[in-house]
Amino acid sequence: MNLKNSGKERRGKDNFPRIACEFMKILFITPEAQPFFSTGGLAEVSGGLPKALRKKRAGCRVVMPLYQDIAPALREKLRFVTEVTVPVAWRRQYCGVFEARLGGVIYYLLDNEYYFKRPGAYGYYDDAERFAFLSRAALEILPLVGYKPDIIHANDWQTALAPVYYSRLYANAPGYEGIKTVFTLHNMQYQGEYGKELLGEVVGIDEKDGALLEYNGNLNLLKGGIECADAVTTVSPSYAREILDPWFSHGLDPFLRQREWKISGILNGIDTEVYDPSADGDIAESYSAGDISGKAACKVALQEEFGLPVNPETPLFAMVTRLTGHKGLDLFKPVLYDFLGGTDAQIIVLGSGDTEYEEFFKRAREDFPGKVGLYLGFNPGLSHRVYAGADLFLMPSKSEPCGLSQMIALRYGTVPVVRAVGGLKDTIVDATAGEGNGFTFQSYNAHDMLDAIRRALEVYARPEDWHALIQRGMACDFSWNASAREYLGLYKGLTA
What we know:
- The protein is an alpha/beta fold.
- It has 2 domains: 9-269 and 481-495, Rossmann fold (3-Layer(aba) Sandwich), CATH 3.40.50; 294-478, Glycogen Phosphorylase B (Rossmann fold).
- The chain has 20 helices and 20 strands.
- Helix 4 (127-140) packs across helix 6 (161-170).
- The radius of gyration is 24 Å and the shape is globular.
């Protein structure tokens, strides 16, 4: 691959600027990306994968909304580039294009105050229209910013219309020919289902193409993205197999099985610069796999921060999670009191979500003073301190397309106890027999989870074995490097 660049711009017959170099060019369309806006794992992917692709000398530009909640310090990094009116069915809407350059990646943040000057990102009555605008605008701005990608990579239902729009409205347009599309499923639970009347009112494609989006009598935007993309990925190999099963597919399994040939799983990674116990300014004392002595100080500091009795011998469990049913919190209801009453363990929970789970852990804190620490909400710095200070990390998920928390926990020398599902199955190997990097259980059963916890405590009681387990976990490489290599292989296969 020739990466030498004369630095001189030329233009092709499509009037897109051309740079005299040869490398893969990717347009990454996402509803959220770190560091600008995040509600969870998708933002970490959208922030981490483009940087990793850039390190492999692939050009990657990211398109996302300019949300109201983007911090002022980040807004100061934005530069206005251009503006355009974007078709949204029968209407046209203003779109301002702002550019930021961070970590070698160019970000385009799309401004429309009617759609995006609101708190948060999701949950509005007109989400279908807001994200149809995003998907169409991402394609409309390409000639204006002088970028013709080899690959358009869309993510989740919010940008599922991008492959649809490209295949039906842009593939044969001057300057857009030959682009391939990839669509990543981050969570099948959210599919963008709406009434069929939105086809003409919001989506704005020809009625004869409506079948691309129709499913079970409704419009299903996720289904449209899968149908029209050249390749579909999930965020772990196991999840790619699981979504063919009705338990995980949320109704789309018959459709997915017919398109299994285009679906593959590529495991997500984590940003090993953000999550690095040897250089983390948020934790009490730095440490590394070669010298983990600082982790003891982090545990003491965490116990003090949550008002728990300071005891280095007490096994300290933690969860950093959304408090929702699919995270496996139902499993705690029948056994948490056996767990806390039958051991000297402590547990810290950081997260927010459904009221029933928030109230459950509030009651547990009252019933077991000195054993339960609770923070309702999310605090990035505090999450780092939890990862660093805990001994064991609980993830009993009902479903987990990939999961990042178990990888972060390993990075900080905190041993995961997980249900073997989705990405958890791909990253955690049971250590009961003296190898592996954590503890797993198979069935979605509270007492199976409790058995895995007890097996973990048995090893915790043997310091030499526990230290060896920590070192095996910290030696695991879940950086974005391997994921980026697999994505590049996929991209090159499509464009060969």
